[in-house]
């Protein structure tokens, strides 16, 4: 059956800032307290979409969430008017930063998605990630679930699960720790879940940085999605790699159809894991592995090579969409040359994109997108306004230019005008993306009052 892989990209929200909230994510910690450029960040994301659209790659858009989240701050006991809440929370800058993060832009962490070819009821299954391991990211799952239900609203095609319960025991980071391999678009696939630790201990664990995903969380998702046990794999991330800054598997590996591109330090019992995958794969799996001697892990983490997107263009070629930092790092650039000359040409071309604003928080091209493989009828049922085309591009560009600030610093997060500007922007966005005027909490609260 004809299948389309649609890349749903997160729109960068108006409060994009650098707060150093993610211990274990080297870029986030390195850029803490620097001045961010929300307008540029959002436009960089849109430019990436244009490039893909021009190459015939179908793309979609997922909206930013409401930030600062006044609802979250109220749950913490701040009271009074919205402006009172904001000014009281400003005395606790770490809490205000958590309430203000635009981190939902990284939609690879929005959910785990299993296409209908893999599931027992023939529907596409979604589990929004609970993102339990970082305070600012725990604000996302409920709003993500709401967005996914609006965009993929047809129940006969799409099954929506709730985020996993259980906090850090069942910590789940979504598609960033999930890879799907298949012999051809539309064919049933192998689903690979990557975890960093076991919920109840046992086995190796990183010592410097946290492991965000547990095996038990991944197993629960596979059960919910009705995946066949023989086609589902659970691989443990190497603890050393996590300690070197590989906080998600998509910092060290990327898969697409019959290609798995990864670093040799990705998994515990790496060689045996790859052998199992090769054996289970229908047809020939192409594994391209970077060796430590040619591409030291620190360089791979710095350049974010494995956070490139692998995409099939409408002309049938496979494109590696890499961060521009890859061209600037010598070992990475050399490895890409080797990749392009690889026997059988698994990758036909490379294109570099400037996503510097997102990259400085640890979000490369692949972090910004959630892949959803769909049959044509499934695709046709998706909320049309959330699919990207050049008309959407122009509308969103004008919207960003009208509402986004050029720059933001940590102290700006307490500015009541920023709250007001963000709400005005998001209210207008619900019109552009046809999400309805009750999509955001502030819209529902406001309607309740009037
Ligand atoms: O969860 N950074 C995100 C980056 C997520 C990248 N996603 C994938 N690898 N798929 C995180 O660490 C930083 C926010 C700050 O520091 O202001 C942040 O949340």
Properties at a glance:
L-arginine/glycine Amidinotransferase, Chain A; 34% helix; 15 strands; three-stranded mixed beta sheet; alpha/beta; binds N~2~-(3-carboxypropanoyl)-L-arginine
Radius of gyration: 21 Å
CATH homologous superfamily placement? Succinylarginine dihydrolase
* Low-pLDDT segments, ≥5 res: none
Proper CATH architecture: 5-stranded Propeller
Reading side by side through the largest sheet, how are the strands ordered? 2-1-15
Query: What is the distance, rounded to the nearest whole angstrom, between the alpha carbons of the first and last residues?
Result: 49 Å
| Mean residue pLDDT | 97
Number of DSSP helices?
17
Please give a structural write-up.
There is one protein chain. With 450 residues, the chain is an alpha/beta fold. The protein has one domain (3-67, 102-449): Succinylarginine dihydrolase (L-arginine/glycine Amidinotransferase, Chain A, 5-stranded Propeller). It contains 17 helices and 15 strands. It has helices spanning 26-30, 38-54, 70-75, 82-89, 93-100, 141-151, 215-224, 239-243, 270-280, 297-303, 325-328, 330-340, 356-359, 376-380, 390-403, 416-432, 441-449; strands at residues 3-10, 59-62, 111-114, 124-128, 158-160, 178-182, 189-195, 232-236, 253-256, 259-263, 286-290, 309-312, 318-323, 349-353, 369-375. The strands form five sheets. The protein has a three-stranded mixed sheet, sandwiched between helices. The chain has a three-stranded mixed sheet with strand order 3-4-5. Strands 6-7-8 form a three-stranded mixed sheet, sandwiched between helices. Strand 7, helix 7 (215-224) and strand 8 (232-236) form a beta-alpha-beta unit. Helix 2 packs antiparallel against helix 15 and helix 15 runs antiparallel to helix 16. The longest helix has 17 residues, at 38-54. The chain starts with a strand and ends with a helix. The model has no long low-confidence stretch (mean pLDDT 97). Bound molecules: N~2~-(3-carboxypropanoyl)-L-arginine (SUG).
């Amino acid at each position: 059956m004809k299948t389309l892989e649609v890349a749903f990209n997160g729109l960068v929200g108006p409060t994009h800032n650098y707060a150093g909230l993610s211990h274990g994510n080297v870029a986030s910690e390195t850029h803490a307290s620097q001045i961010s450029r929300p307008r540029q960040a959002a436009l960089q994301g849109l430019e990436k979409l244009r490039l893909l659209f021009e190459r015939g790659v179908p793309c979609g858009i997922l909206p930013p969430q409401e930030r600062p989240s006044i609802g979250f701050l109220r749950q913490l006991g701040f009271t009074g008017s919205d402006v009172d809440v904001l000014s009281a929370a400003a005395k606790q800058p770490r809490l205000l930063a958590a309430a203000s993060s635009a981190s939902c832009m990284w939609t690879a962490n929005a959910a785990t998605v299993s296409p209908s070819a893999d599931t027992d009821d023939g529907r596409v299954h979604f589990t929004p990630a609970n993102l339990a391991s970082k305070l600012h990211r725990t604000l996302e799952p409920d709003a993500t679930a709401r967005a996914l239900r609006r965009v993929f609203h047809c129940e006969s095609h799409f099954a929506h699960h709730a985020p996993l319960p259980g906090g850090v025991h069942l910590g789940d980071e979504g598609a960033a720790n999930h890879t799907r391999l298949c012999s051809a678009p539309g064919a049933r696939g192998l689903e690979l879940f990557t975890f960093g630790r076991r919920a109840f201990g046992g086995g190796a664990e990183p010592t410097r940085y946290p492991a965000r995903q547990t095996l038990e969380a991944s197993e629960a998702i596979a059960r919910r999605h009705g995946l066949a046990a023989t086609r589902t794999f659970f691989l443990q991330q190497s603890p050393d790699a996590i300690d070197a800054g590989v906080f998600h598997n998509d910092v060290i590996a990327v898969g697409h159809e019959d290609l798995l591109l990864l670093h040799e330090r990705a998994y515990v019992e790496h060689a045996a894991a790859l052998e199992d995958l090769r054996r289970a794969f229908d047809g020939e799996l192409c594994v391209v592995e970077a060796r430590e001697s040619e591409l030291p892990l620190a360089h791979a983490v710095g350049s974010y090579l494995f956070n490139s997107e692998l995409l099939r263009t409408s002309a049938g070629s496979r494109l590696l969409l890499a961060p521009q930092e890859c061209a600037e790092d010598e070992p990475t650039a050399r490895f890409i040359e080797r990749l392009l000359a690889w026997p059988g040409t698994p990758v036909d071309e490379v294109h570099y994109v400037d996503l510097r604003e997102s990259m400085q928080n640890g979000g490369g091209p692949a972090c910004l997108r959630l892949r959803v493989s769909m049959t044509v009828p499934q695709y046709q049922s998706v909320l049309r306004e959330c699919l990207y085309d050049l008309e959407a591009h122009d509308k969103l560009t004008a919207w960003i230019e009208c509402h986004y600030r050029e720059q933001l610093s940590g102290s700006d997060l307490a500015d009541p005008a920023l709250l007001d500007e963000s709400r005005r922007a998001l209210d207008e966005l619900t019109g552009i993306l046809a999400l309805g005027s009750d999509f955001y909490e502030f819209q529902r609260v406001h309607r309740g009052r009037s």
